[in-house]
Design brief:
The complex is a heterodimer. By secondary structure, chain A is an alpha+beta fold. Chain A folds into five domains: about 170 residues, PAS domain (Beta-Lactamase, 2-Layer Sandwich), CATH 3.30.450; about 55 residues; about 100 residues, PAS domain (Beta-Lactamase); about 80 residues, Signal transduction histidine kinase, dimerisation/phosphotransfer (DHp) domain (Helix Hairpins); about 140 residues, Heat Shock Protein 90. Chain A has 15 helices and 17 strands. In chain A, α1 runs antiparallel to α4. Chain A is rod-shaped, with a radius of gyration of 71 Å. The two termini of chain A are about 95 Å apart. By secondary structure, chain B is α/β, with parallel strands linked by helices. Chain B has a domain of about 60 residues: Response regulator (Rossmann fold), CATH 3.40.50. Helices cover about 45% and strands about 25% of the residues of chain B. Chain B is built from five helices and five strands, in the order βαβαβαβαβα. Chain B has a five-stranded parallel β-sheet, sandwiched between helices. The longest helix of chain B is centred in the last third of the chain and has 12 residues. Classes of the chains: A alpha+beta, B alpha/beta. Chains A and B meet through α10 and α11 of A and α1 of B. The complex binds adenosine-5'-triphosphate and magnesium ion. Magnesium ion binds next to α13 of chain A.
Amino acid sequence: MDSKKEPKSIRLQTRLILYSTLVILLLMALVIIIVEKRQSETIQEEAQKRGVTMARHLAAVSTNALLTYNYVILEQNAERVVLEEEVLYVIIHDKEDKVAAYSQHDEKQGMILTDEVSQKAARARAPLIQPILYGEKEVRVLDISIPVYIKESQEKWGTIRIGLSLEGMSSQILKTRLNLLLLGGFAIVLGILGSVFFARRITQPISKLVGTTIAAAEGDLEQAIDIHTGDEIGELGKNFNHMIEQIRLHRNELEDRLRQITSLKAYNDNILASMTNGLITADSELKVVTLNERAEQILEKTKEEVANRSLDQVLGDRHPLYGMMAETFAQDRVIFQPEIEVKRSEEPMWLTASASVLTDGEGKKIGVLAVFQDITGIKALEEKLRQADRLAAMGTVSAGLAHEIKNPLSAIKTFVALLPRKFQNPSFMEKFNITVPREIDRINQLVEDLLELTRIREHLFVALDVNHLILQVIDLYSEEMKKKQIHFENHLDGTISQIQGNAETLYRAFSNLVINAIQAMPNGGTLRISTGLISSENPDLRIAFSDTGMGMDAETTKNIFNPFFTTKDKGVGLGMALTHKIIEDHKGTIEVVSVEGKGATFVLSLPVAKK
Amino acid sequence: MNNFTKRILIVDDDKGILDSFEVLLGDRYDLVMADNGYEALRIIETEQPHLVFLDIKMPGLDGMDVLKKLHEEQKNVEVVIITATHREETEREAKSLGAIDFLMKPLNIVDVERIASQVLS
Ligand SMILES: Nc1ncnc2c1ncn2[C@@H]1O[C@H](COP(=O)(O)OP(=O)(O)OP(=O)(O)O)[C@@H](O)[C@H]1O
Ligand SMILES: [Mg+2]
């Protein structure tokens, strides 16, 4: 990781150092060149100025001697001046350009010098400076010549020449150059060191930044950059930290989401797998999307073989589940089927199934879902229970029947058997005449009732007034009710009493209800009968018989409509069975609700007459 | 043949049965009637009949309950069951509880008279 990030920053650092070094070098070179030139010029000027001054001075002191051709004086002057520093030679020319004095060269006195420099100097009418190379060693020399004029005259009386060595100056210049170079070198080294230092300072945070970005790029977001340079790089670091923090937050959020989604998915899968219900879903093209384990077992298909295949292919277009799901999707409504039979390789299976439309978050239909449960076992159990119930009910019926027939039969048989023996006994005959017809009537009534219970009604229904019928019944029992202190509360609605029905049987049904109510209130109470519409949507007639009697327990409410079920000493148990049958014949319903000890309410519904 | 000292209890919730016993045996024996089990037990206690004709199917305390009670208390009384429905196991149980006979309705007067005279002779 480190080896990766270094090159970049080093390159930057080197580049920075290189650039700054180059700039320093150039700058120093320029400075050195300029300073050196200036310095040399100054030194040269100085030397020249000195030479000229000396020459002028010599000219001033030698003018008289020149005028008078006093060579001795001139020679003395020359010898004196040549002693001056840097002065190599002193030559004094007379009016005719001959050598009047030549320092350390007496032999040249009186000669005319023919070299070009001397010629130019002797002829010059103004001060002349000629750089020359002097002697065998070719020393660099400035030949300074000053013409000597007499005051207020243009006539030249001679020439003073001084050969000023430039060697001293050169060495001084050299020294200066050396100093400059030294200084420059020092400055360069310092500059380079400085640039290295600054480059480091600049690049170090950058390389840190780079390292962090690389780490971040590789996924390590749990880090912050620690740069406090207080400049743009610090700002960059801060921004980068902020950015990383943002990325980290985003990533954490994403990871959280992902975790949630995965756990949700696992959760869903778990739910689906552990569901005891079968579940199948299909998309909007009715292609299977999910099938849970239970559904696999029930439908005898595997997920793999049904995935993405259309429902009708998978289930067959006759399959009730397919029908349900297709209908649900097409009509956009929930369908519930308490019992459907599906064919299977072995025995057929009974299912309870419901199907509903799947929608997305915006309520758009995206598919259909069916949930189903195997109720084969429950159905078998139910069948058994029904059988048991039937048998039990049949037991009640046959026992009741036996009781109700054999008792009167037994009485009749005894009376008849005694007849030959006792027909002359008036008290016997009296009892005979009361008992035998009564017992025969009992049997007859029983047979009638049983016939009524099983008869398929063929009576023509006629329009009749229910209120009227009820009031007739109440009228019949009013004496008894008064005696037992039973109060009648009339809540009959006069506006809706017309129905189609059979007056005779309905009268019996209402009588049975009233008799039972009276029997349930041996110590008095209230019988309240009310009529009205079932509801605004259902215009059928609702009739309620409510008493404040002893009420009944759950066992009784369950069996109340079974023939021969009775809890009474002298009861036959056909009253409510008959009433039920009669109301059924009228396409109505009857239900009972009761609180033991508080009373009972029978609620009847009867279709009203259609006009 | 005056047996008025012999007392017979008839227990049945059906008036027709009670009436027919009345005309059949009423002129020879001292008859007492009860239309339920509690009444029957009370009469057995107080009037000490020699013979009881006992119906099984009665509301409240039925015939078998009465028989059990008598058996438990080892009452010195002969019991004949009279019933409308015949069930083998009910008959067996009744016999094991000491019932001396088991008569089916509709009753045969010959059987009733025979049992009465046999028990009460
Ligand atoms: N209003 C009521 N209050 C309490 N219990 C009632 C009421 N109506 C009916 N029952 C119960 O329902 C049973 C069946 O009633 P049903 O009318 O069928 O028979 P029953 O009254 O016993 O005999 P019967 O055949 O003489 O009418 C009654 O024995 C009684 O226990
Ligand atoms: Mg009734």
